[in-house]
Structure formats: C-alpha cells, structure tokens
Amino acid sequence: MGAFRPIAVFLMAISFSAFGAEVEGFRVWTDPEKTRAVLDLDDTSEYKLFTLEKPHRVVVDLKGATLSTQLDFIAEHAGMISNVRHGQPDEGTLRVVMDLQSQVDIKSFLIEPTGQYGHRLVIDMYDAGQRPAKAPARSVKTLAADNRDVVIAIDAGHGGEDPGAIGKGRTQEKDVVLQIARRLKTALDAQPGMRGVLVRDGDYYIPHRERYEKARRERADLFVSIHADAFHNRSVRGSSVFVLSQRGASSEFARLVAQSENSSDLVGGVSLNDKDDLLASVLLDLSQSATIQASDKVAASILDSIGQAHKVHKPHIGRANFMVLKSPDVPSVLVETAFISNPTEETRLTQREFQTNMADSIVRGVRNYFYASPPPGTWIAANRDGGRHIVSRGETLGAIASQYSVPLSSLRAANNLSGDMITVGKELVIPAG
C-alpha cells in the first residue's frame, strides 16, 4: 500500500497489549446522521486514525494487531462506505482502509467489554460539515406559535448493533419496540392537535443522550421511550412506566432495570462515566423541577390507561436513573410494554393486536394529560371547548370537573348525565371553563 499525505490525523494512546489485539469482527450501521463502523477486538490496542482524499477514505492503523475475520459488511447498512480492505504498511501494524463515497468528518473511541460484547473500536463518519447541531434553546418565542400541535417524541429503544433484550423465542427487543413506536405515531397523528415524531425509524443505534437531544431539537412537549422488559424469572409479566429518579432507583427491581437499559449506551459507544456530572447539571437547571413534576403526572396518566387494557407489573410509577430520561426541559417517561423474557408476553409483543392496543393505551394517557394541562399556544389550549377525557379507574366526576376547572353541573349537562355515576373507559366531553 503506497504512502499518502494525511488530511487529518487522530492519535489515541490506549493501554497496549504486548501481544497485540486480534480483530475478530467488523460491523457497519447507518442512521440518518452518520455511518458507524465497529471493529471487534479481543484486547485493547493502540491505534491511529486519519482520512485521505482522491479518493476519499478512512484509514485505521492498529499497532501489533492481526486479522482473524473477513471485513464483510451488508451493503444496505453501509451508508457512505463503498469498500473495505486491509494491508500491512509496516511490520507489526494492521491497516484497515474504508473507501468512501464522499468526504467525511470522523469521531472514534475505544469501548471496554460489556455484556455480550468485548473490546470495540468505534468509528463514526458524518458527511463533511454536517455534524449534528446542538439542540436550540426552548425559548418562549419559539414555543408560543398559535395553534401549534403538541409534539410527542417517540423513542424506540436500542437498535442497530444493540438488540436489547432477547426472548426465549429469539424475538429481539429492538424490533418489537420499533413496531409499537410506529403504531404509536400513527395513533397520535390521528388525534386533533397532536403530532408524533419518531426518534429512530429504522434499525440503527442512537446513543441515549442524542435521543433526548433530538426531542429537544424537535421542541417536543413530551418524550416517550418504548422498551420491552426482561428479568431472570420468566414468570414475571406486566407493563411498567418509569420516570427519572433524582436519588437513584426506588427499588431493587427498578435498579436492575435501569442498569440493563443504561448498559446499552456502552454497547452503542458512548461512555457513561460522566453521568453524575450530567445529572448534576440537570438538577441545577431551574426548569428541571417543573419537568419532573410534569413527567410524574403524565406517567401516572399513561400507567392508569395501560392498566385498563393490560396487566401492569406494579400499580405505581417506577423511578430509576435512566440516562434517556435526563432531558432538562422535556417531560420524559419510559414505558416497559411487557416482559420479553416471559414466553407468553414475548408472543404478544410480536402480535399486531397487542402492539396496536398498547399504542392506543399510551395515547389515551397522553391525551388525558394534555387536555388537562395543555401547553400555551397549542391547538388543544385554544380548543378546550369540545375537549375529551377518557375516564380512568378511580376517577370521579367531581375530580374530573376540578381537574379541568369547570363546574360540575356544566360537566353533567355536556354529557347528558343525571347523576355522578361514570364508568371506566367512558369518553367525556369537557365544556368551556
């Protein structure tokens, strides 16, 4: 391989094994913002990464490394990579070259072993000059457009190289939660004054922090992360709804679930070493207290709605340190739709009827919350007359009237009620206050 003048050089010194690392695997994934290449290693290795042009390519030199696998990739996932090859520019160095379709900006990092994955060298490639912009501030001016939709960011957990939990029947969490997320968007878009935005709409991984940053860029009013739970006891079943805990998980079960979800960020390639700093900065933001309060209320509404149609694991909101819930200014909830580790629920997770019913249950909870507390400037806020409320378990007509600040007599009259008896699931018309 001839010598080339490097356009940019990145050098990262890592603890170097005297015996050298062995490259055991090569994977490529593409999402709307970048192409990610992953080299699976059996040990740490010192490496040098740089780009060349004419033609454009990314070059990785691994000191003391050997190759024990084919550098194959799936074309539909290759993104801007057109070909991959390897060579030995000097004794003791393995060179991997990725031919590109255009000039790129690159970012790389090594990841320590976690879960089923060993050491990995991750290389992210962005179209030159197209690195994601920082989320804009949520100013009053940008949020106060008249009659705007309430925006719900829908996050299908895991994706790409991170399959999430895997059921006994080999169902992968990343697949079923994406299907539920898509059905949730369809159901939300059918609601007057509401619009769903998918954080991911394909089989690719997005680090946790980037997920809620996308919600902020979309100026979302709510962030809903969709997951499928797993537990070592396969008889455990039911749905759960979580919000961020300021003091850590409220129970051992919540702690285990949080650890499982957060570990996927290591799989995806983002270190969680700074999570305490992030949480501290979030807590310093004065808006966070209001965000947490709103998260609690919408989570309770969603859990109650799910409980009307499905078994819930526990009748109260869970609290845990999910990284994906740490947005400073977007109320955020995480829904564990069912236990993929339970064979019966694993089957249900793959069924269209269950997916649709789960999506509809979440929508009912979201709708009830926003009709009770519509953000200023939204269509819902401007159209409270004619709003709707789905009766949840334990609610009374008097409490609903108080929630919407309307006279009890007006609520009775709007719904042709002679008394205060109401049934779970009944849709009430909410008159003007």
UniProtKB/TrEMBL annotation:
GO cellular component terms given for this protein: outer membrane-bounded periplasmic space
Entry keywords, A to Z: Cell wall biogenesis/degradation, Hydrolase, Periplasm, Signal
Q: Which residues form the LysM domain?
A: 387-430
Instruction: Write down the EC number.
Output: 3.5.1.28
GO MF term list? N-acetylmuramoyl-L-alanine amidase activity
Q: Which reaction does it catalyse?
A: Hydrolyzes the link between N-acetylmuramoyl residues and L-amino acid residues in certain cell-wall glycopeptides
Q: Which InterPro entries match?
A: AMIN_dom, LysM, LysM_dom_sf, MurNAc-LAA_cat, N-acetylmuramoyl_amidase_3
- GO terms under biological process: cell wall organization; peptidoglycan catabolic process
Looking at the UniProt entry, the stretches that span the membrane are none
Signal is among the record's keywords:
yes
Cellular localization per UniProt:
Periplasm
Q: Which domain of life is it from?
A: Bacteria
Signal peptide boundaries: 1-20
Q: What is its main location?
A: periplasm
Name of the top EC class for this enzyme: hydrolase
Question: Which family does the UniProt entry place this protein in?
Answer: Belongs to the N-acetylmuramoyl-L-alanine amidase 3 family.
Q: What is this protein called?
A: N-acetylmuramoyl-L-alanine amidase AmiC
